[in-house]
């Protein structure tokens, strides 16, 4: 798939739903390739480097969460997980391993289109994952928030903006986060969330403001913010000192802000 049009891979084993999603995305201007199994979907992702992947959770061969994990290893595409399951654990697992959003069947084409439009209004990394881990890789998306001052002051080295907050260092251009020099395996949403909080670390960011800024206007599911903050905290805490915790404070009834740099 070449050219300026956006591309999508639809992975869905139900023929009717696969056709519905394909038609809906085609109407949005996507060039769509579709698969009915997880392995076939992975092959399409490898071959086409899509901008978007819709992924059924209950596939006949590979579990959708495993497929999502493998997609994340090779692609920076937006991933929307789709499932008939309503269990909270499925939602949490899907978002933790790299999905950007989650739709529960049945859903309307308009709902899918609205969510896709909201995702594409967010900043998107343009480098391939393999390049992201290579030394001296070039080309990246601009950071989603301005370079902060104060506790998260910017340090410029070789024209790369490095944001520091205690043990945390953020390479905004390379979209790499480290804790004590160890790289954190963050999803696109988790990276954007962290850099947003660091852009004004003393500010209390409301869930509504974070939801609007990261997912786009018109969203009301503030639970999405809570899930991603929880995942971000766990990943940062895991890389920090034993007994420490990620410096993201919950301000009850409002939202979140960064702790002082020395707190972690």
How is the topology of this model organized?
Elements: E1 7-11, H1 15-27, E2 31-35, H2 38-48, E3 52-56, H3 64-74, E4 78-83, H4 88-96, E5 101-104, H5 109-120, H6 129-132, E6 154-157, E7 160-165, E8 168-171, E9 176-179, E10 182-183, H7 188-199, E11 205-206, H8 207-215, H9 223-239, E12 248-251, E13 255-258
Parallel strand pairs: 1-2, 1-3, 3-4, 4-5
Antiparallel strand pairs: 6-7, 7-8, 8-9, 9-10, 11-13, 12-13
Helix pairs in contact: 1-5, 2-3, 7-9
What's the short version?
The protein has 264 residues and is α/β, with parallel strands linked by helices.
Note down, in words, how this protein is organized.
With about 260 residues, the protein is an alpha/beta fold. It folds into two domains: about 5-120, Response regulator (Rossmann fold, 3-Layer(aba) Sandwich); about 140-264, Arc Repressor Mutant, subunit A, CATH 1.10.10.10. The protein is built from nine helices and 13 strands. It has helices at about 15-25, 40-50, 65-75, 90-95, 110-120, 130, 190-200, 205-215, 225-240; strands at about 5-10, 30-35, 50-55, 80-85, 100-105, 155, 160-165, 170, 175-180, 180-185, 205, 250, 255-260. The strands form three sheets. It has a five-stranded parallel sheet with strand order 2-1-3-4-5, with helices on both faces. The termini are far apart. Residues about 125-160 have low confidence and may be disordered.
């Amino acid at each position: 798939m070449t050219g300026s049009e956006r591309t999508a891979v639809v992975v869905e084993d139900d023929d009717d739903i696969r056709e519905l999603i394909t038609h809906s995305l085609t109407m949005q201007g996507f060039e769509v390739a579709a698969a009915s199994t997880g392995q076939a979907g992975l092959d399409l992702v490898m071959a086409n480097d899509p901008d978007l992947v819709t992924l059924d959770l209950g596939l006949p061969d590979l579990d959708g969460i495993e497929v999502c994990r493998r997609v994340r290893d090779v692609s920076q595409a937006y991933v929307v997980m789709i499932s008939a399951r309503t269990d909270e654990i499925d939602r949490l697992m899907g978002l933790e391993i790299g999905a950007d959003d989650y739709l529960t069947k049945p859903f309307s084409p308009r709902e899918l289109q609205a969510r896709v439009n909201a995702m594409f209004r967010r900043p998107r990394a343009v480098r391939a994952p393999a390049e992201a881990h290579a030394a001296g890789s070039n080309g990246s998306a601009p950071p989603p928030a301005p370079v902060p001052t104060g506790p998260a002051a910017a340090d410029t080295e070789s024209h790369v903006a490095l944001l520091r907050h205690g043990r945390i260092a953020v390479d905004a251009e390379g979209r790499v986060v480290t804790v004590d020099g160890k790289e954190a395996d963050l999803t696109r949403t988790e990276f954007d969330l962290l850099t947003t909080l660091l852009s004004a670390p003393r500010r209390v960011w409301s869930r509504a403001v974070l939801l609007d800024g990261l997912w786009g206007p018109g969203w009301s599911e503030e639970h999405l913010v809570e899930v991603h903050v929880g995942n971000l905290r766990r990943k940062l805490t895991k890389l920090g000192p034993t007994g420490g915790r990620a410096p993201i404070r919950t301000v009850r009834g409002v939202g979140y802000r960064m702790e002082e740099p020395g707190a972690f």
